[in-house]
Amino acid sequence: MTDHHSHHDHDHEEIPADIQRQLEQVAEVIGLLEDPATGLPLDQLEAEIEVGFDEGTVYTGVTLGYPCASAQASWAERIRTACEPLLAEGPLAGAEIQSDLFFDIGRTETGEVPESLRAVKNIIAVASGKGGVGKSTTAVNLALALAAEGARVGLLDADIYGPSLPTMLGTEGLRPEVKGGKFFVPVAAHGLQTMSLGYLLTEDTPAVWRGPMASGALNQMLTQTLWSEGNGAEDGELDYLVVDMPPGTGDIQLTLAQKVTLSGAVIVTTPQDLALVDAIKGVEMFRKVSVPVLGIVENMSLHTCSNCGHREPIFGAGGGEQMAADYGTRLLGQLPLAMSIREQADGGKPTVAAEPEGEVATLYREIARKAAAQVWLASEDDAAFPEIEEV
């Protein structure tokens, strides 16, 4: 299905056959290149590959199904390296190579969805087996990283017991605009469209929620937020809605997984074995309701001594990798145990927004590309989504 057509459709003159042959070879070589986010060659991903030739320059275009803005330079370099030997001789000898990387984000096929969620192409749940593993910080930075890679992103704080989103995004005290008496317009923060129970609770609302009331509040935020109306959603669509799930594997998590079609789940864990046992429960819960587990993020993985720079795995090493292997999923990334990650989130400017070019932001962006690439793979393989029936 790989598409090899000329980049310059407006030049209708016929390309000579010998040049055409050489361009096809270029497309074939590009098709063998491995996509770093999935580990699969472009041909196997059925990625669109275009080649063309105009005035001494070979143009190539690759279109991936996940946001990958920061990967442009490395792809151009790899394509040049792979194609230069081919262009050493023949009619295109000495041609310049110009490469472009594009992305086109598809949507996860869903059954019946509430009107407000039709504007959302993919919903990614960020979950953990227990609290205290840095799940919310990961969810916020993952959303920011997807946006930094070029996607339009929303963030829903479904942690109704301890909604921390307003603190992390510096949006405390803000209230969403209400439309038509019952719809919320998401609050814009750092380029994200956000919604949290924290925006709706006031100082004097007790945060002690009974189960049914809590899942009612979550349901209301899910179905009554106008994701298509937030600032910056020009065509009224979000590529991804990241949902920061409450910690644990109880009723609320199941309700959510059954109410909406989740494109996939990211499980956050720390290297301690105990936390991993809890994370395994998370993996199993999503498997039960046929939600693909996109992968595991291992948080607080390595500590770097602020005095001497020595790194060591305080909480043990290799747990996330082992678990990913045992459960047929993947390790999306390992984040350091760094004071700055917590301080920046607590201060209302999470790491990806605070230091977009820093080492930690780069890790989050790689995790974002890998997670989004798994969403792409899962949506290509529709068989992965059986209908969920209400029991």
Automatic annotation (TrEMBL):
<dbReference type="InterPro" id="IPR019591">
    <property type="entry name" value="Mrp/NBP35_ATP-bd"/>
</dbReference>
<keyword id="KW-0479">Metal-binding</keyword>
<keyword id="KW-0378">Hydrolase</keyword>
<keyword id="KW-0408">Iron</keyword>
<keyword id="KW-0411">Iron-sulfur</keyword>
<keyword id="KW-0067">ATP-binding</keyword>
<protein>
    <recommendedName>
        <fullName>Iron-sulfur cluster carrier protein</fullName>
    </recommendedName>
</protein>
<dbReference type="InterPro" id="IPR044304">
    <property type="entry name" value="NUBPL-like"/>
</dbReference>
<dbReference type="InterPro" id="IPR033756">
    <property type="entry name" value="YlxH/NBP35"/>
</dbReference>
<dbReference type="InterPro" id="IPR027417">
    <property type="entry name" value="P-loop_NTPase"/>
</dbReference>
<feature type="binding site">
    <location>
        <begin position="129"/>
        <end position="136"/>
    </location>
    <ligand>
        <name>ATP</name>
    </ligand>
</feature>
<dbReference type="Pfam" id="PF10609">
    <property type="entry name" value="ParA"/>
</dbReference>
<comment type="function">
    <text>Binds and transfers iron-sulfur (Fe-S) clusters to target apoproteins. Can hydrolyze ATP.</text>
</comment>
<comment type="similarity">
    <text>Belongs to the Mrp/NBP35 ATP-binding proteins family.</text>
</comment>
<comment type="subunit">
    <text>Homodimer.</text>
</comment>
<keyword id="KW-0547">Nucleotide-binding</keyword>
